[in-house]
Structure prediction request, 129 residues.
Amino acid sequence: MKVYTVHLRRHGLDLDHDLILVEEGFCWSAFFLSLPWAIWYRLWWPALGITAGALILNQIFWIFHLDSLTSTTLILGYALLIGLLANDLRRWQLERQGFASFGVTTGQTKDEALGRFLDASPDIRGEFA
Prediction:
């Protein structure tokens, strides 16, 4: 069972709205493809930070002439850090875009989790009907 945080944004008086679910835990796509992942979700500042971090690591390897085991360990550590922080970066970006954290839900898939959330929140379900 996966855990998701629910983020809701309402626009004006007509109650036009957005509802986004963000999975809790490790993000494998950010671990393997950190920069494309950040660009896909339009996380421009984190994408810039990821690029800067990679350039700094590259300079460290070049300046200190690190062996391949140490270089690989540092690269994997950096990718691990990005994978651990990725979904928190998405939540941060959503907060900056005016989304409010509205709750937590669970499900095997994102659709099932959304259905559970809407079943438990009839006031919001009416807005999305």
